[in-house]
Amino acid sequence: MSHKVLHICLSSGWGGLEMYPSRIIPELARQGWQAHGLALAGSRVAESFREAGIEPLTLASKGRALLAAGRVLAYLGAQGVDVIHCHKSSDLRLGALLVTLRPSLRLFFTDHMGVTRPKKDLYHRWAYGKVTRLFAISEATRQRNLAAFPLPAERIRRLYLGIDPAPYVPRLDDPARAALRRALGVPEGAVAIGLPGRLTPGKGQEVWIEALARLAEASPGLAWHGVLIGGLTAEEGSDEAHVAALRRRIGELGLEARIAFTGFRRDLPRLFEALEIVCVPSRNEAFGLKVIEAMAAGKAVVGSDSGAIPELLDVETGRLAPPEDAAAWAAALAELADDAELRQRLGQAARHRVEKDFTLAAHVASLTREYENPKGAEGE
């Protein structure tokens, strides 16, 4: 085996799915694998490959991808690549065609989104039939995968995502942390309650805002400040109409002075240092990357009791609340905001859980074992 892999992501968007290949490329290199990339010309994905140190093969459009099969096969042959890894279901058309034309190739697919409807028609049976291994990023998505995909159970494996915990270790001294809090508009002595992620429907910002309003009403003497972390424009991955709706609701509730929008930030590990509590109120996370990032930073985390988040958080490492229940969210925030010792205890346990179960090194080691096994390893 050549220990070379081509990651295919023909997406013009920018989110966790699109970020994944470039996130793992450095760790693949550390573990002896050479990564190659296939992306749309001019896309953020293509740019991310370059930022990770590789020059991707590019296609002009997704619609003409199948016509480029010969060019891609020639590239694979010239580079000695015999493993392909797809990240969007639509890209499997090209991946399956490549395997059909060159059966020695091994095809892997990660379901980053969590399938929502059965895919067992003739086309999907052909396409998924070419997949060596399908990776589900949580047990919640794996159960849906088992019901939806035309694959035997042994070819669908749960493979949790991972992060490098090192960047999330606190490094700011007290003056630097105080300066960052001031820049975010957090008053001295206030409990900073953050919500990181794309500002799009489904991410739960609405229930978080309602919960903060209830917190203000129920605990008028409690000093807190809300921090919404995420891009404000479509170019930054957010829904501009949704952002406008959030601003309107904050205004209606009279919380303009108590909730700040940071805009897109590249320094999330440092922003976590300015917060006491991190919230992830998404309705149906397929995994919950922001959850484990906040856990690695040693933060007290409140997450939605839905999707895959309960696989990451428990009563020893954080708190869970129903994604549509603002009163439950307000109660969880009140408990944590009023107890610094509890926040510290949960944060320490959360950091240890990430170091034990959710590191990028462990994720890539499991991934490369699958790449290397010609028959496909069985079990979890």
How much is the average pLDDT?
95
Order of helices and strands: EHEHEHEHEHEHEHEHEHEHEHEHEHHH
As a percent range, the share of helical residues equals 40-55%
Rg over CA atoms, rounded to whole Å, is 22 Å
Overall structural class, as computed from helix and strand content, comes to alpha/beta
CATH domain topology of the largest domain: Rossmann fold
The CATH class of the largest domain is Alpha Beta
Q: What percentage of amino acids are in beta strands?
A: 15-25%
Kindly state the number of beta strands.
13
> What is the general shape?
elongated
The domain count comes to 2
Q: Strand order, biggest sheet?
A: 3-2-1-4-5-6-7
- Tell me the span between the first and last alpha carbons: 23 Å
EC number: 2.4.-.-
Protein name: Glycosyltransferase family 4 protein
Organism: Halomonas alkalicola
GO molecular function, one term: glycosyltransferase activity
Quick summary:
One of its GO terms (molecular function) is glycosyltransferase activity. Belongs to the glycosyltransferase group 1 family. Glycosyltransferase 4 subfamily. The protein is of the alpha/beta class.
Description:
Its EC number is 2.4.-.-. InterPro entries: Glyco_trans_1, Glyco_trans_4-like_N. Residues 14-165 form the Glycosyltransferase subfamily 4-like N-terminal domain. One of its GO terms (molecular function) is glycosyltransferase activity. The chain starts with a strand and ends in an 8-residue tail after the last helix. It has a seven-stranded parallel β-sheet with strand order 3-2-1-4-5-6-7, sandwiched between helices. A six-stranded parallel β-sheet has the order 10-9-8-11-12-13, with helices on both faces. It is 42% helix and 17% strand. The chain is elongated. The longest helix is centred in the C-terminal third of the chain and has 18 residues, at 340-357. It has helices at residues 16-30, 44-51, 69-79, 92-101, 122-129, 139-148, 174-183, 205-218, 240-252, 268-273, 289-296, 309-312, 326-337, 340-357, 360-372; strands at 4-9, 34-40, 57-59, 83-86, 106-111, 131-136, 156-158, 191-196, 224-229, 259-263, 277-280, 300-304, 318-321. With 380 residues, it is an alpha/beta fold. Helix 1 (16-30) runs parallel beside helix 2, helix 8 (205-218) packs across helix 13 (326-337) and helix 11 (289-296) packs across helix 14 (340-357). The mean pLDDT is 95.
